[in-house]
Amino acid sequence: MTLIRQCSKTACVRPASSTLTYVYAEQTAVMGPLATFAEPHSYDLCEEHASRLTAPRGWDVVRLELPEGQPRPPVDDLAALADAVREHRGVVRSEPGAGPDEVEYGATVTEIARRGHLRVLRDR
Fold it and tell me: Is the pTM of the predicted complex or chain greater than 0.85?
C-alpha cells in the first residue's frame, strides 16, 4: 500500500511535491524536493503552495531543485540541507573533514568556537 503525503496547508487536499524546512539559526527557509520521510519539523507542500512561498522579513529563501528526470542523490536529507545553507551563505570549510570550529567565513574571518546559535569569530 502506497501512502501519498498531502500538503501541510490547512484544507488543502493536493499531494505534496516539496518539503519546506526552516533553519532558524541562519534565518533561512529551504524549499526542496519532497523528503524521503515525513519529519515533524518540516512541512510538505503541494506545487501551488510551494511556488507561492514567502519567508518572514529579513529571511532568505533557498530553493533546491533537481533537474527534470534526475534521481535523488543518496545523501542524508539533513546533511544536504546543511550543505545548501552553507553554500547559500558563502561558508567554506577549510578542510574536507573540518569541524565546526574550523569553518571560514569569507577571506578574513574564522569561526573559533560555537555555543548553540552563537559563534565566536576571529578576524585574521
Answer: no
